[in-house]
Write a structure and sequence with these properties.
By secondary structure, the chain is α+β, with helices and mostly antiparallel strands. It has two helices and seven strands, in the order βββαββαββ.
């Protein structure tokens, strides 16, 4: 997993969403743009959710951490695939999860409910609405799990 970084640019293509990181490079895996060029392939699971989330993070100038699909590659390639990433907004302190520093929240994006949460969060960010999460339990990495959302109505 990368360190926290911003996105320098995005480049939608027929192959997927290509992007470059501002504060992270890995020349051992990516041999283009000084190790800062990566792709979310269009044939990956949940491509629409992943690409729209990354575009929203880029537009909002939010920091991300990426997980590179090819972290076990024997040599670098043009643009390694990203299989998941985290977008940072605010830290949520939560004492229920041991070792939790408040920097991560788990949304199960492979479920219908998780996809609804992601879409709702993107809409709230776009319309500048305040969102109040309901968190319960911890996942296997010690992160709180999002179980509900409340959005402040009005302007």
């Amino acid at each position: 997993m990368s360190n926290q970084t911003r996105i320098s640019w995005i480049y939608p293509t027929d192959r997927g969403l290509v992007f470059s990181t501002q504060d992270y490079s890995n020349k051992e895996l990516s041999n283009c743009d000084y190790g800062t060029r990566f792709i979310i392939p269009s044939d990956t699971d949940n491509y629409e959710v992943k690409s729209s989330s990354l575009i929203a993070a880029f537009v909002a100038d939010k920091k991300i951490r990426i997980n590179i699909d090819g972290e076990k590659l024997s040599s670098s390639i043009y643009e390694p695939s990203i299989n998941r990433f985290i977008v940072f907004k605010d830290q949520l302190p939560l004492a229920d999860c041991a070792g939790q520093d408040g920097g991560y929240i788990r949304i199960y994006g492979d479920t219908q409910k998780g996809q609804y949460f992601i879409s709702t969060l993107l809409a709230a960010i776009t319309t500048n609405k305040k969102v109040f999460p309901a968190l319960a339990g911890c996942d296997d990495w010690g992160r709180p799990v999002l179980t509900g959302l409340r959005i402040k109505a009005g302007i």
